[in-house]
Design goal:
alpha/beta; globular; single chain; 10 helices; Rossmann fold; 5-stranded parallel sheet
């Protein structure tokens, strides 16, 4: 499996809001953003000015949409999530998803999954952040949804 990541809209928007795309770039050598993900970000531009930052970063890594296999369509996910998983299957890459149903679908298809919380945890483990908790709190303030029990367990796992 290569180290390239196929990225969905939610992580892009969250990391644009906290201005930390550098963490993406430190953790993976290459990115793919399906056109459907760009469409989702564009749809939110009028309501969210930080969407522009996400779009500016993402457009550099965009690829056309792929046909979505029936095995993904049965999960009834959004267009962006479906495309992220389809691209992941087509090229055996990591997928970056926050949506629980999409994460389950990706795992069921044998893909490696990381989400916004995982990016911060991995950045801390690799020495790109001195502390994860402040960045997790910023992501939560920016709209990231995460169960507090899971969050505390994850942070304890890295010594915080």
């Amino acid at each position: 499996m290569t180290d390239a990541w196929v990225v969905n809209a939610s992580p892009l928007i969250l990391f644009a809001r906290v201005e930390r795309f550098d963490l993406f770039e430190q953790l993976a050598p290459k990115f793919i953003v399906p056109e459907a993900v760009l469409d989702e970000i564009r749809a939110g531009q009028a309501k969210d000015p930080t969407a522009n930052g996400a779009l500016n970063w993402a457009v550099q890594h965009s690829l056309p949409n792929l046909p979505v296999p029936a095995s993904i369509e049965h999960w009834d996910l959004g267009a962006g999530e479906s495309q992220v998983i389809a691209h992941g299957l087509a090229v055996s890459r990591w997928v970056v998803l926050d949506d629980l149903a999409a994460r389950r679908c990706a795992v069921a298809h044998g893909l490696s999954v990381i989400g916004s919380l995982g990016i911060v945890l991995r950045a801390k483990e690799r020495g790109f952040l001195s502390e994860a908790r402040p960045w997790v709190n910023k992501l939560k303030a920016a709209g990231m949804f995460v169960d507090d029990g899971l969050l505390n367990q994850a942070l304890a796992g890295i010594g915080e």
